[in-house]
Amino acid sequence: MELPSIVRKFIKGNRAALNLKIHPLVSIIIVTCAYDSRKDIDDCLKSIENQTYKNFEVIIVDTMSSGGTRDYVERSYPFVKLVRSKADLGYSGGNALGVKYTYGKYIVVSNPDVVVDKDWLYELIRGARNHPEAGILAPNVLLYDKPRMVNACGVEVHFTGLVFPRFFEEPESRCKEEYVLAPCGASFMIRRDVVEDVGFMDQDFFMDFGDIDLAMRVLLRGWKCLIVPSSKVYHKFLLKMTPRKYFILERGRWLMSMKNFSRRTLIILLPSLALTEVLAWGYALYCGKEYVASKIATYRWVLKNLTKTLKKRGKVQKLRKVRDKELLELMSHKITVPKQWLEGISKLIVEGYFNAFYQTLYKIAHHLT
């Protein structure tokens, strides 16, 4: 016997509601910056189309990319919501713009130069259901040209703000389900209610540290950052340093620390921060005058934006529920410099002598916070 139409409509409506509850919408933000993303975006979007988890939307924020990326995406991928920016906002600013166009319960940040595994989203959602305390969930980011080797299983954040890829070029089995301080910015997922609670990326970071600063605010609010190794992405990663990148990294290191640590912790960390300045200046002198100019430009930027930074810091400190001691416990006191940046005796000095001092200073800071 056929069911009455009103009953069929009721079942259909509730099935749709149940489906939304079981398979909530995921919003994926991809920022195409002022370099040519056209060569990467095909591989990225095709892998996203192939997901076993189907309830997602894709927002591409184009910040003045070259090579016809915008027109190509608009023509070839009609399911993509394209947001055009009239300025180069960088990684942080582009994602901050993109989040305004999202509707999902979960928000995923992804680089255009990644190819994602077919179960990438499914495993992240599974991790979120099993770990309601996790505000941020991060996949295992593997190297595209060495797919069994780790690019970054989260990031290693030194307690003075230096950042290194976690387990770089180690076997993928090294990556376990565990809590870390911050995800790799190439791909991670954050709950919408966490974004509504702590905000999203600070565009002052431009290319680097926006994701780490966000993670620190999330942790200060009492949430966790969880690695989900069964979720995998493959990153077309190139490890290189330029004077411009050095400026952005040094600026980001100072801005992140000034915003998120308490006044007491910053005072306790002064000897450690001074030691890192010695290290940073040594690296700049080692690399040449352009890097020295970048280091000087860092100080100029910090001083010029000090008032604005202190206002942001005040807002962060009002939100905090967690002591800095808990952040420090997730931070590293060791520096592991990639061989592509330093080698030979210079690498041995940095990783040997400096780490001996850092270990002592870290113990003191951890005890006093």
Task: Supply database-style keywords.
Spore Coat Polysaccharide Biosynthesis Protein SpsA, Chain A; single chain; 369 residues; 19% strand; alpha/beta; nine-stranded mixed beta sheet; globular; 2 domains
Nutshell version of this structure?
With about 375 residues, the protein is of the alpha/beta class. About 50% of the residues lie in helices and about 20% in strands. The chain has 2 domains: about 10-235, Spore Coat Polysaccharide Biosynthesis Protein SpsA, Chain A; about 245-369, no CATH class.
Beta-strand share of residues = 15-25%
- Give a count of the beta strands, DSSP E runs of length 2 or more: 11
CATH 4th-level superfamily of the largest domain: Spore Coat Polysaccharide Biosynthesis Protein SpsA, Chain A
CATH class of the largest domain: Alpha Beta
Structural class: alpha/beta
Intertermini distance? 72 Å
| Contiguous uncertain segments of 5+ residues | 10-20
Main pleated-sheet profile = 9 strands, mixed
